[in-house]
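Ticket closed. Logging final result for CRAL-TRIO domain-containing protein.
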Amino acid sequence: MGEPAPISLDTLTEQQQEALASARLIAKEAGWKLDEFSEWTLLRFLLKHRWKLSAAEKQIRSTAAWRAEVGADAIRASIAAGLQPRDWPAMDRICPHVLLAFTNLPTDDGDRLTYVDANDVFEVDAFLNCATAAEIFVINLYVLEHASYHNDRRSAATGRLCRWSTHFDARGIGMRHISVRVAWKFRPCLPLADNFYPSLFGFMLTVNAAKAMAVFWSLVSPFVGENAKQVAILDTESSPGALLFRAPASSVPTCYGGSLLRLPVDEVSRLPAPPERFDYGAAYPNELGRWLASGLPAAALPDPARGGGDEVGETGISR
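Final structure:
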């Protein structure tokens, strides 16, 4: 997080273009199965290492070896072929405990937004029992590969480096949800982003956090380092409209002060379960769940065979 993003590959200096070409050769030599958007992946490694190819090379080679070991290239290929979050392994057991809405909705910086809400559905014991540690690791791979592939694809489409930004509604999440057992189960996943997915994340905005959590973060964040500038944890009083300082109203649901009445039609397929067979309002009795449900009655969803949308418009944005 926090590295300046180039406007386009065309803005790179001759030396930077040579470094990127060398990084591609290094990755291919190391067995990395590159695709049409992988140039943006490799650019992220060079950015992390301030364009020092020798330093980036070590991480590129270790990443290529790791990807071969865990099957990450195959996961990326399946996502490129159209695999959606609802089809990920164990997603049907994990999604009832947290609502994840992956989108391509842009922030002010052109990053992609994901909305998260776990209020009234997350309980430690139930979550720990829904999947094994191995399954948790695998689904984290799918999350990271999904973010990486679609970030790179968006980067290629817009000509500027795109990252993954998150908006987490922490209303109702308290000390009883803070568990060493959860952290331990996720322990193998924690270093993955730093080790193998550099420059993946944009901002991480947490709203409606418990007062103590927000105060604690305000005290420690100055000492955490440069990356902390992209992380914000706000209490309920400071949360209304907070996302509007980082994203246009057209990307922000009305429940968070924006003008987005419902998910755009092309974003619905990214939801963790098919809305025609899943009652989001009943499954997620929280802010984000109610907002989704209000815009996802099965009868109102456009039929792809017929085309067209409802009275809200294809974008889902309030006119």
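Residues 93-300 form a domain with the Phosphatidylinositol Transfer Protein Sec14p fold (CATH 3.40.525.10). No further action required.
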